[in-house]
Amino acid sequence: MSEQTPSAPEQKKIILSGIQPTGIFTLGNYLGAVKNWGQMQQDYQCYYFIADLHSLTVHIEASKRRAQTLQAFTQLLACGLDPEKSLIFVQSHVRTHAEAGWILACCSQFGELSRMTQFKDKSSKHPDNINAGLFTYPSLMAGDILLYQADYVPVGADQTQHLEFTRDIATRFNHTYGETFKLPEGYFPKAGARVMSLQEPTSKMSKSDTNPNATISILDEPGVIVKKFKRAVTDSETEVAFREGKDGINNLMTIYSAITGKTFEAITSEFAGHGYGDFKAAVGECVAEELRPVREKFDELSKDRPYLESLMKQGAEQAERISLRTLSKMRKRVGLYLPK
Ligand code: TYM
User: Fold this and answer.
1) 8: in domain
2) Which of 54, 144, 159 to mutate to test ligand 1, by most ligand atoms within 8 A of the CB atom?
3) Under a CB-based contact definition with an 8 Å cutoff, are residues 262 and 196 in contact?
4) Are 185 and 152 in contact (CB under 8 A)?
5) Catalytic residue positions, numbered
6) pTM of the predicted model as reported, rounded to 2 decimal places
7) Which of 183, 275, 333, 337 has fewest C-beta within 10 Å?
8) Which bin fits 273, alpha (ψ -120 to 50), beta or left (φ > 0)?
9) What is the CATH classification number for the domain harbouring 244?
10) For residue 226, what is the enclosing H or E element?
């Protein structure tokens, strides 16, 4: 799997990624994924979508899901995705995804799906709702990626196993039925691929965390962001240095590095002789500045629902057309009957 920015190709390569509409995006979503999506638009053919079918694995009120989907779509635009350059759509508006997911579920083995860390984590945290969708989630995700013949999939480190699974399924399908899919590669940012909780720095920062001090939402006000960083859990030492056992400081250094582009060594020298207080304030301020235009753009876009819905419709039509090419091949290969 690639860890470097793929070099700009002559003929545009295809980038695809998705995000679930399960709450306001966190700084982890932003640094691990969405910020990089925006930066790739110039050099690649980019497809980005809201993974609302995936979000059905968690049961919430229908009206809440609908609101979160519109909000998530708006956040993608606010984070810099440009509908003139990228194809942006909602997964459930494009019917090919569910069908591809089913065909690939039939090529996925019980054993390999049972080994998925995300399935094991989610089913141990919510033993009252271990639904079949949670189990076959990786097959649907493989369909999302393979339908568009993606070259690169920019995601955070928590999605590595799902990407390996996608490559395994694609290889198996190609071998069994004949060459159909391109094998996609993950693309992970150098800094920010795993942003941790500010209160429990051994767990990842997550949209669904119930402790508001643990996560930075991309729509938080600057004052709130600075305050949350001031309260971030660190350790009893005083040196700003990246090393084992300093999970809280390592996380803050990762965030600072992802935003400023500074190396860990440069950050250590910058804060030599300062206490953690100064460092936390600097991280808080740089994050607040980075997210200020995102929040402002979100507020502005949210006022124009007809515009947002027209983009959704446009995106869905185009995505259906593109993905239908691969789905037609899949149907043919597995032997679904096609009347003349
Ligand atoms: P989701 O919605 O959980 O997260 C969206 C993106 O944010 C990244 N991410 C993080 N990166 C760094 N630090 C964190 N703390 C952090 N938390 C989340 C995730 O790695 C992801 O890139 N299964 C996917 C959605 C999906 C998808 C796809 C992605 C569905 N189909 C096809 C790519 C291609 C998910 O649940 O992402």
Assistant:
1) no
2) 159
3) no
4) yes
5) 122, 204, 207
6) 0.95
7) 337
8) left
9) 1.10.240.10
10) helix 222-230
> What atom in ligand 1 is closest to the CA of residue 162?
23
Which token pair is 24? 């306001």
298's tokens: 């979100």
Q: Is residue 142 part of a domain?
A: yes
Distance of CA 57 to the CA centre of its chain: 17
**Pairing between strand 185-187 and 152-154?**
parallel
Compute how many other C-beta atoms are within 10 angstroms of the C-beta atom of residue 67.
12
In sequence order, the 6+-apart residues with CB closer than 8 A to the CB of 242 are 249, 250, 253, 264, 267, 268
d(CA 198, CA 248) in angstroms, rounded, equals 7
Q: What is the pLDDT of residues 105-118, one digit of tens each?
A: 999 999 999 999 99
Which residue in 49, 70, 75 sits closest to 140, CA to CA?
49
- Whether residues 188 and 284 share a domain: the answer is no
> Could you report the per-residue pLDDT of 4-25, keeping only the tens digit for each?
556 655 689 999 999 999 999 9
**Ligand 1 centroid – CA 20 distance (Å):** 7
